[in-house]
Amino acid sequence: MAGARQETATARTLTLSVPGWQSHRAGQHVDVRLTAEDGYQAARSYSLSSAPGEAPQITVERLPEGEVSPYLVDVADPGDALEVRGPLGGYFVWEPDARARRPLLLVAGGSGVAPLRAMLRQRLRSGHDTPLRLLYSARSWDAIIYREELLQSGPPDVQVVLTLTRSAPDGWSGRRGRVDAAMLDEVAWTPTEQPEVYVCGPTSFVESVASTLVKLGHRSDAIRTERFGASS
Ligand SMILES: Cc1cc2nc3c(=O)[nH]c(=O)nc-3n(C[C@H](O)[C@H](O)[C@H](O)COP(=O)(O)OP(=O)(O)OC[C@H]3O[C@@H](n4cnc5c(N)ncnc54)[C@H](O)[C@@H]3O)c2cc1C
Asked: Cα(228) to centroid of ligand 1, in Å?
């Protein structure tokens, strides 16, 4: 592990230094395995949150009572060795397609923003002109991962829409409340514009967003999902 940056009180981005790393695709993940002194092992998947061509990064949200995430957020230090396998996964990946130029809709709940940040960074770094919208649901202002980066202004066809579900600071002019049909109807492109959709977050969030998009008329085969696990 080459570096660490605290993103929120409970989330940290780790920069990995992996000998022989041959880049990755936006949306892929790695498996991290920890081994205790008594030989007990635990492995968990973490999405790569940096763009292809950048040093590999993962962003980990600490779960109370979790086996692996508290170690990665609170204990591991730069210089420590981690056992990493990857990059893995070939379904939940996005690559700019110069021919299709379909708009890209990214919908994130909580730490589900990690692989979608890789897609956003790839879109910005590649200079490709795919119109992109990221709709990101966080509990509060303090829980927004990559906050400074996401609030930076980008090209006009790249939009970041934040919604806060539990509390919002005074003067907050963004959205409030959970991602629902009305919000998706406003933020997503219309089905006739055929956006490519990537949804990532806790399992219940992903299932709710994906089924709502289908009810709004989006094709289910245009929606790719990544489930991080049970909602806390
Ligand atoms: C493909 C993939 C990519 C992933 N990418 C990321 C990532 O980029 N960042 C990240 O933080 N996590 C990511 N996850 C989730 C991650 O793999 C772990 O499940 C998570 O860190 C919890 O591990 P733990 O050992 O700390 O908790 P565990 O010991 O496994 O679980 C502790 C408790 O939390 C509950 N729980 C398990 N997972 C979740 C969850 N996701 N949300 C809420 N409650 C949960 C369990 O039911 C249990 O009660 C990803 C999962 C998958 C499958």
From this structure: 6
DSSP 125-140: HHT----EEEEEEESS
Q: What is the pTM of this model?
A: 0.96
| pLDDT tens-place string over residues 16-31 | 999 999 899 999 999 9
**Structural domain spans, the chain:** 3-88, 104-227
Residues whose CB is less than 8 angstroms from the CB of residue 7 and which lie 6 or more positions away in sequence, other chains included = 13, 59, 145, 146, 147
Q: How far apart are CA 169 and CA 178, in angstroms?
A: 16
Assign a CATH topology to domain 104-227: Rossmann fold (3.40.50)
* Residues with C-beta less than 6 Å from any ligand 1 atom: 29, 44-47, 58-61, 63, 65-69, 111, 114, 202, 226, 228-232
Q: Which run of H or of E encompasses 107?
A: strand 104-109
